[in-house]
Amino acid sequence: MDQENTKSPFEGIFKDKPTIAKKRYRVIAFMVDMFIFWLLGMVLGIFFGEQIEGEFGYSLNGLPALILVFFGFFLWPISEGLFGQTIGKRSFDLKVVKDNYEPIDMKQAWGRFFLGFIDYIFLIGIIIAATNKQNKRIGDMVAKTIVIKSNYKGKQNYIH
Hints:
Largest sheet: 2 strands, antiparallel
Helix content: 40-55%
Number of domains: 1
Order of helices and strands: EHEEHHEHHHEE
Strand order of the largest sheet: 1-6
Radius of gyration: 20 Å
Low-confidence stretches: 1-14, 154-160
Strand content: 5-15%
């Protein structure tokens, strides 16, 4: 029997099926983003802040504090809403998309961002993602998003 002509009846149903992002890469990408945010905060603190007595840190007020807040908004919800990625996600080839693999919108990006506080502060999101087949945290479930490897080239293409 010729092996080249033998195919599974399910082979080729999905072309370019996306890969769900692994939890470890999502956590490391988040840590990269947090490091970038911390680094900007430290630079602003060195030049414009007041050193906190007895600690390695700075207190920011006024415009420098506002710059840091706006940078945080750009780093997470705005960059995800516009590009589907933060700097950390881009460095690990991850992308946030809707459950149907289309690009997310700003509403979904802001929803993920605000629910991220619950996810990361209380570690609930990490626990839920660990027990979820698609590695979704609370923010992903509510916003109906999923994090995938970004080498995925568009929506699922069915072979006809």
